[in-house]
């Protein structure tokens, strides 16, 4: 029997720091909800908007896989392992914090905000050498189909992390349908709607809604309007 959990967009935690507007699907910083600590190995799903010229100062991480998906604008990344790069819409960034890394993320544009998703996945290996990667995705590869953007395999499509997790993006026209088949039977799938309206296994979802499902082999997805969404398959036990 499948298990499900629904997180409507307006039930998320919210922090407004002036320069940063952040919506938290799971407990984070000053937002604590014991019912929303994680979805399996998916620990953090933050929907962030950073004001022009502002950003996150240098801060440390350890033993966490940190994924950033820019939705709008440019974000400058610097870290303690020698990287200084810019990520923008169409890119995906991953950082394995491992034994420890410090990084900063800034919106260098003085006249436009940056929107991005910050996602943390609990790794299956601790104490690894810190690692950074970013790639530019071909956005046509998600038009009316699922585009793999992350996996456990360095040689597979997208970036890779230290966990048996697979992420896909879809950008569907109205009435397009597809099935998603789980890569591992024991995993769960968390669906996050970026834009538009979709139905997943009979559950209607709207912009910024989240929906988790597990103990099932596949899910059916239908676009009820033009829609863009992120699928995150992660271990439920870790």
Automatic annotation (TrEMBL):
It comes from the Bacteria. GO terms for molecular function: metal ion binding. Its cofactor is Fe cation. This is Pirin. Residues 149-234 form the Quercetin 2,3-dioxygenase C-terminal cupin domain. Binds 1 Fe cation per subunit. Transmembrane segments: none annotated. Fe cation binds at residues 59, 61, 103, 105. Keywords: Iron, Metal-binding. Residues 14-121 form the Pirin N-terminal domain. Pfam families: Pirin, Pirin_C_2. Belongs to the pirin family.
């Amino acid at each position: 029997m499948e298990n499900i959990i629904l997180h409507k967009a307006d039930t998320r935690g919210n922090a407004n720091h002036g320069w940063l507007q952040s919506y938290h699907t799971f407990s984070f910083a000053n937002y604590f909800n014991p019912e929303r600590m994680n979805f399996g190995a998916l620990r953090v799903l933050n929907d962030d908007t950073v004001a022009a010229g502002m950003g996150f100062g240098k801060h440390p991480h350890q033993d966490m896989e940190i994924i950033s998906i820019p939705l709008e604008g440019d974000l400058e990344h610097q870290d303690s392992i020698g990287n200084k790069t810019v990520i923008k819409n169409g890119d995906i960034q991953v950082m394995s914090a491992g034994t420890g890394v410090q990084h900063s993320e800034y919106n260098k544009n003085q006249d436009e905000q940056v929107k991005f998703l910050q996602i943390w996945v609990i790794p299956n290996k601790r104490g690894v050498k810190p690692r950074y990667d970013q790639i530019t995705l071909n956005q046509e590869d998600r038009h009316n189909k699922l585009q793999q953007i992350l996996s456990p395999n360095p040689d597979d499509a997208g970036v890779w992390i230290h966990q048996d997790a697979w992420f896909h993006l879809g950008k569907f026209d109205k009435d397009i349908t597809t099935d998603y088949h789980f890569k591992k039977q024991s995993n769960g799938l968390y669906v996050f709607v970026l834009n538009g309206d979709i139905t997943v296994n009979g559950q209607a979802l709207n912009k910024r809604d989240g929906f988790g499902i597990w103990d099932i082999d596949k899910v059916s997805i239908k676009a009820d309007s033009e829609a863009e969404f992120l699928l995150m398959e992660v271990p439920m036990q870790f």
